[in-house]
Amino acid sequence: MNVCMAPCPVVFDLDGTLIDSAPDIHACVNAVLREFHVPPLTLDQVRSFIGGGVELLWKKIVAATHTDPGKQQDMLAAFMARYHTATSLTRLFPNVEETLGILADRGHPLGICTNKPLRPTEAILDHFGIRALFGHIIGGDSLAEKKPDPAPLRAALAGLGAHPEAPQAVFVGDSEFDAACAAAVPVPFVIYSHGYRQTPIDQLPHLAAFDDFTALLGLIETASVSA
Ligand SMILES: O=C(O)COP(=O)(O)O
Ligand SMILES: [Mg+2]
C-alpha cells in the first residue's frame, strides 16, 4: 500500500460531475435544431447524449432526429457559436463550491479533465468564479484524444505534478467515459451518482461512489491511502 505523503492531486470531470449543464446544452441544441428546421429533442434525450464531447453529441442528435448526416458539421459549428455563452441554466451541484474550497485549503492540487471543449469550459468556470481553484484544465479539444482515452487524464495529472507512471491521485467523474479513462491510466476513480451515466454504477469500475459532495472529502482521503 502506497500512502500519499502530501495531499494528492484530485482531477474532476465537469459536465454531470461539478455542474448540471444539461439544461443549457439542451437549450443550445434545440436553438440549432430550430435554425435547421428539425423538431426539438427532450432534456432527457440530450442529457443521455452528453459525455463523449461535442462531435459525439451531434452524431447522436443527427441519428436521433433522422437528419441528413451531411448537415452535422454545420450544426456543430452553429452550436459552438452559442455554447460558450450558455451559462444561465447551468447550476453547480449541491456543496460543490464548499468541497472544492476545503480540498484546496487542505493542499490538494485540483484539476479538470473534461470532454467539453476548452472555451465553454473556461466560460462556465469563470461564470461560477471557480476557475482559479484549478491548477490545470484539460478540455475536449486540448489534445487529439478524448476520454475514454487515458491521454487527457494523464495530461491533467502531469500538469498537477503527479508521477507519470504511478500517479497517486484521484479522478472524480460521472460517466462511462470517465470510468474507462481512469481504468486505462490507471488511477482510482470515484463516481458521482447524480450525473449523466447510462449504465448502473455497479457495472462501472470504480473505487467508491457518492451522492453528495460533502461525502467526497472522506472518500478522497480513503482513496489516497489505498492508491
Ligand atoms: O461535453 C461532454 O460531452 C462531456 O463533458 P464531461 O467530460 O465534462 O462530462
Ligand atoms: Mg461528465
Automatic annotation (TrEMBL):
Catalytic residues (UniProt): D13
NCBIfam families: HAD-SF-IA-v1, PGP_bact
EC number assigned by the record: 3.1.3.18
Family, as annotated: Belongs to the HAD-like hydrolase superfamily. CbbY/CbbZ/Gph/YieH family.
Protein name (record): Phosphoglycolate phosphatase
One Pfam family, short name: HAD_2
Biological processes annotated in GO: carbohydrate metabolic process; DNA repair; glycolate biosynthetic process
Coiled coil: none
Keywords: Carbohydrate metabolism, Hydrolase, Magnesium, Metal-binding
Function (record text): Specifically catalyzes the dephosphorylation of 2-phosphoglycolate. Is involved in the dissimilation of the intracellular 2-phosphoglycolate formed during the DNA repair of 3'-phosphoglycolate ends, a major class of DNA lesions induced by oxidative stress.
Pathway: Organic acid metabolism; glycolate biosynthesis; glycolate from 2-phosphoglycolate: step 1/1
Native organism: Paracoccus alkanivorans
Cofactors demanded by this protein: Mg(2+)
One GO CC annotation: cytosol
